[in-house]
Specification:
Elements (H helix, E strand, L loop, with lengths): L11 H14 L3 H18 L14 H12 L6 H8 L2
């Protein structure tokens, strides 16, 4: 199979994590990047757009406040949530 080179800018943290993983597991960075891209593209092709969860989300101040409040004082579970966890 023919190969081509691609180029991308990534954060220092991402590069450090890539280097560390490749070194710790004895794999080539090129192989690891290709596997990650293939995995990600397969997921994008298989999952409907409305069920994909973004890696990062940016919230405005009011939304962040609501999330913080819910984390500090979680609402009681709904009936549907109770049924879901009772079926385990």
């Amino acid at each position: 199979m023919a190969t081509v080179q691609i180029s991308a800018f990534v954060s220092d943290d991402t590069k450090s994590r890539l280097d560390g993983y490749a070194r710790a597991h004895g794999v080539a960075k090129a192989w690891l990047i290709e596997q990650a891209l293939l995995h990600h593209l397969a997921a994008l092709e298989a999952l409907p757009e409305d069920v994909r969860v973004p890696v990062r989300m940016t919230l405005d101040q009011p939304s962040a406040g609501r999330v913080r409040a819910m984390l500090q004082h979680p609402p009681p579970p709904t009936d549907a949530m109770r049924r879901l966890f009772d079926d385990r």
